[in-house]
Amino acid sequence: MPRIKKNEPENIRRSKSVWRAAYFILILLAVGTAWIQLKPDARVVRQSHKQYWASVAVSASRGEITDRNNIPLAVSIPATSFFIDPKYWDPKSADLLVKPFGKNIAMKFSKNLPGRFHWIIRNVPKGKAEKLVNQEIPGLYKINEKIRVYPHKELASHLLGFCDIDDYGQAGIELAWNHILFSPPRTRFLTRDSKGKTLDIMGGKSGVLKNTSGSIRLTIDSRFQQIMEWRLNEAAKATNSSWGAAVCVDPTNGEILALASYPALDPNDRTNLKDQNAVRNNVVGRVFEPGSIFKPITMSIAIETGAANKNSSYNCRGTMKLFDKTMSEVNKKAHGVQDLTHVLMNSCNIGMTIMSMGVPKHQAYGMLKQFGFGEKTEAELFGEEVGLIKSPEEWLGTVPANIFIGQGIAITPLQAVMAIASIANGGALLKPYLVAEVLDSDGKVIHKGGRRVRYQVMSAKTAEFMREAMKRVVSEGGGKQAFSEKISIAGKTGTAQIATGGQYVKGQYVASFVGFWPAEKPKYVMIISLGEPKGARYYGGQIAAPIFKSIAEDISQISPSDEPIGSKVNIEAN
Q: Which end of the chain is more exposed for a tag (fewer CB within 10 A), N or C?
């Protein structure tokens, strides 16, 4: 005990004693509180467990995707998920789950289960959720989440992609831009009130959490997209084709205006995702030998290298012996003497074969690479194939002639349409783009798509000659079924055999038509490809050209904005 000074006043001594007592009591309270927290009473623990048992990570709102006109294509809406707490669940109640959830789910919960939390089904739209369970069943609980919905079902599904059950992008734009669209899961605490009713409490400092996801506006026009999908699906079913692909771009800036793939896919129905043929985006994920739609490209190369000019002519006798093989026309038909334009109009294999002999193989290979073949276009889509182009060392025997007529090389529809777009725009190979702009969670633009020149692949003079020649293909040549009285179309047909194991398979073809309109001042470039059509009609001029015409006429009746939505940024060709 501290010594008390004898001369210290009585009131001061009394005050110090009071403070000592107060400090002692505070210390006792602190020790007691710590003891209760570290060693709580078993009865308190049991009571708290009745009120709280789990924290669950649930999906949050994912960023919106719209078309160029701000029409929503992918949105997140409120949904309900159902789970069971085995502590309060009676397995005998499993029969009550048959009607709303099905026999398989009911059987799973007809026995004792470990733990405190088991999902039954997740992300059921609100309206349907209310119908699933309209009675209170002990141990069965609901929780609010968000579900990714594609309001137009199959529309643009192959470019949009889809998400998994936790809203993480798995394909298309959803995957390519997942870092912008994805919002991290939110933690929900599951508690009970004094009456035993389940409470769903959002974790966080406040009742309303800020959305952290951004949004994306695409270059596509949903009206063009709808037209293209209708026409492609109609044609594929009519010809009993195994697959189909179509894509339309703006040749002045590289905007993708519509992109369709067949078979169709509804990403709202997750059972569809098991069909890999439907999931595949044929525009970027399918490679094929292009056939005669490749001839405008190789003819441009011949002109640019000086191997051909407007005065060149070629004598076609129907067949031609080249090394150890015979090159021939369809049905070995002789075309006679052909100038460049008529070689293209008649899709003359012999004329292209003779033309190929004047182009140095290393130079031809290099220019094909500049046209974008053998490498990705770098469009904002996952699953893009690079195609196949043989190295110059492999250009032996008839290989150069085969490549000049569209055989022995594999490309994607998107590569083809961008190469033809270089003819339409005066000679520039552009990078295609699908995303017009990206906004962060505050609505601030953080990315804008725009014109990117990859290479200047031909002169404006060569491009002008090719446009005129392709116009005559439609008005006078093999592409007459694409001729329209309403709009001026230029293009090229193509029918290619399908090779399997290094051998062409009899009766299996890819029918295509690629072109642009208006022919004099192109605003749109498009390709239509139908894979493995079955029946007597399988030529590109027979089945692909009419579909091209129908889509072009339909689109021409819609008045799109004259101004591109992407900023025009010129980058030097590399």
A: N
